[in-house]
C-alpha cells in the first residue's frame, strides 16, 4: 500500500514565518518542533515539490506535501478521559484541565487515549487518535481527534477554513456589554472573537464577575484569553495574563470548550456536540453573590 499523502496550501501568513513554526500550528501530524524536524530529516516533508528545510521561509500559496503519518510511538500515560462522541472515523473527548493535547511530553491527551481507545477498523486507520486541533493546557473541554487518515486530512482543512464552529463558556472579571465582537490582531495576524452575556453577579473582592459564551471565529494561540484581557475582562484564574490584576487563585482557569459543530467528513451529516461547563463556574458566581449581599 502506498504511503498516504497530505497536501496543504499555505494561506495568508506573517512575513518571515518559518516552516518549523508554521507546520506546528497548521498540520496536526506535525504538532511539535520534534515532529517537524523528523519529517524534514527523513525527507517526508516537501516544499513546492523539493525536500523542505527547517528554516525555509514560507509565502502565501506555497505547497506543502507530507508523506506517511510519521506518528511517534505513544508514551504510557494513564488517565481516564471522558468520551463524549465517537464513530469509526472521529472521536470527541472532554479533555481535563492540566494536560496538553499533544507535543513532546508524557502527560498528553493523545498518550492517554492511545492506551484506552481501540484503533478504527477502517482501511486507512491511524494507529492511535490524532488531535485535529488544540486547546490550552489549563483549559478543559471538547477536543476532536481523528481515527483515520482521511478524517484527519478533511477535518484539518475544515478547521483551516473556519468550517468548524466552537463555543466556550468562561467566567470573567467585570461587566461586559451584553454581546459584542473584537477583531484585535494577535501575533500579527487577524483574529476575531464574539461574546454573549449570560450572567453577572456582584463580587466583594472583584467588583463584578460575569459568565460569558465565547465564540472564536479564528484560532490564534491563547486567542480567547488575550482578547478578554485586552478588553479589560480577564478570564478568572488566568495567572499567565493577569499581570498586576488580582484574580481567583487555586480554582484553575475558568474556561471550558463546551460546543463543537461540523460536517462529518465521510457521511456529510451535520454533527453538533455539547457539554455543560464544570459546576465550579456557577458555584463561584453563587458564592461571590452571597458574600456581596452580606456586606
From TrEMBL:
Gene Ontology biological-process entries: enzyme-directed rRNA pseudouridine synthesis
InterPro entries in alphabetical order: PsdUridine_synth_cat_dom_sf, PsdUridine_synth_RsuA/RluA, RluA_PseudoU_synthase
Keywords annotated in UniProt: RNA-binding
Domain Pseudouridine synthase RsuA/RluA-like: 89-230
Pfam families per UniProt: PseudoU_synth_2
Coiled-coil portions: none
PROSITE patterns: S4
Source organism superkingdom: Bacteria
GO function term, MF aspect, one: RNA binding
Family (UniProt): Belongs to the pseudouridine synthase RluA family.
The protein's name: RluA family pseudouridine synthase
Amino acid at each position: 500500500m502506498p504511503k498516504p499523502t497530505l497536501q496543504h496550501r499555505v494561506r495568508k501568513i506573517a512575513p518571515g514565518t518559518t516552516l518549523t513554526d508554521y507546520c506546528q500550528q497548521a498540520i496536526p501530524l506535525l504538532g511539535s518542533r520534534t515532529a517537524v524536524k523528523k519529517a524534514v530529516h527523513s525527507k517526508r516533508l516537501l516544499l513546492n515539490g523539493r525536500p523542505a528545510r527547517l528554516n525555509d521561509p514560507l509565502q502565501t500559496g506555497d505547497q506543502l506535501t507530507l508523506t506517511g503519518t510519521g506518528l511517534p510511538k505513544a508514551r504510557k500515560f494513564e488517565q481516564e478521559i471522558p468520551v463524549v462522541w465517537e464513530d469509526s472515523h472521529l472521536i470527541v473527548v472532554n479533555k481535563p484541565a492540566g494536560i496538553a493535547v499533544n507535543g513532546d511530553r508524557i502527560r498528553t491527551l493523545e498518550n492517554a487515549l492511545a492506551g484506552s481507545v481501540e484503533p478504527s477498523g477502517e482501511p486507512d486507520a491511524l494507529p492511535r487518535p490524532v488531535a485535529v486541533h488544540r486547546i490550552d493546557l489549563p483549559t478543559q473541554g471538547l477536543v476532536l481527534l481523528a481515527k483515520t487518515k482521511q478524517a484527519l486530512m478533511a477535518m484539518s482543512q475544515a478547521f483551516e477554513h473556519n468550517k468548524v464552529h466552537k463555543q466556550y463558556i468562561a467566567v470573567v472579571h467585570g461587566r461586559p456589554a451584553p454581546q459584542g465582537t473584537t477583531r484585535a490582531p494577535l501575533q500579527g495576524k487577524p483574529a476575531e472573537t464574539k461574546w454573549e452575556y449570560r450572567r453577572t453577579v456582584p463580587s466583594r473582592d472583584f467588583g463584578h464577575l460575569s459568565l460569558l459564551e465565547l465564540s472564536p471565529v479564528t484560532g490564534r494561540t491563547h486567542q480567547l484569553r488575550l482578547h478578554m484581557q485586552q478588553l479589560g475582562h480577564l478570564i478568572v484564574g488566568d495567572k499567565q495574563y493577569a499581570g498586576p490584576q488580582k484574580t481567583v487563585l487555586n480554582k484553575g482557569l475558568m474556561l471550558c470548550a463546551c460546543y463543537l459543530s461540523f460536517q462529518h467528513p465521510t457521511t456529510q451529516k451535520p454533527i453538533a456536540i455539547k457539554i455543560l461547563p464544570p459546576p465550579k463556574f456557577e458555584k463561584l458566581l453563587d458564592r461571590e453573590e452571597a458574600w456581596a449581599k452580606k456586606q
